């Protein structure tokens, strides 16, 4: 009997798809000199400047420890500034961060165009399904 997980397992197919997407994203986001996740964190902060680590965690769905680690890396590169407000860490974009965001947003646009070309009309339906299904899994 052949296993069916190659095409029917949500975990396996999603992970295989993610590995393929990540290879493309790594190439497109190479001008930032960082993994794409850092660009998305920066874009989230740009959209909500100033933000907090907990807010980034909730909006992007990353683990709090991962967001803390990545934000610290961004602060070490002088792309964000960290401050405390009670028990919360506030994150703000710096001037260097705004320059980084110009490049990151160009990469995002290029990635969007490339995936539009590669996936065609399936992209809109697929991303909508992934978004709604992720919400179901999160509860």
From TrEMBL:
InterPro entries: HTH_MarR-typ, WH-like_DNA-bd_sf, WH_DNA-bd_sf. Transmembrane segments: none annotated. It comes from the Bacteria. Residues 27-124 form the HTH marR-type domain. This is MarR family winged helix-turn-helix transcriptional regulator. It comes from Companilactobacillus keshanensis.
């Amino acid at each position: 009997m052949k296993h069916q997980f190659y095409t029917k397992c949500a975990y396996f197919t999603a992970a295989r798809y993610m590995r393929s997407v990540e290879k493309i994203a790594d190439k497109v986001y190479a001008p930032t000199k960082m993994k794409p996740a850092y660009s998305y964190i920066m874009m989230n902060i740009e959209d909500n400047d100033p933000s907090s680590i907990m807010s980034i965690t909730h909006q992007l769905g990353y683990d709090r420890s991962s967001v803390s680690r990545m934000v610290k890396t961004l602060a070490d590169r002088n792309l964000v500034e960290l401050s405390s407000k009670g028990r919360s860490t506030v994150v703000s974009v710096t001037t260097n961060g705004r320059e980084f965001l110009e490049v990151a947003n160009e990469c995002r646009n290029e990635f969007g165009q490339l995936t539009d070309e590669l996936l065609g009309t399936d992209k809109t339906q697929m991303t909508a399904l992934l978004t709604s299904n992720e919400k179901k899994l999160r509860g």
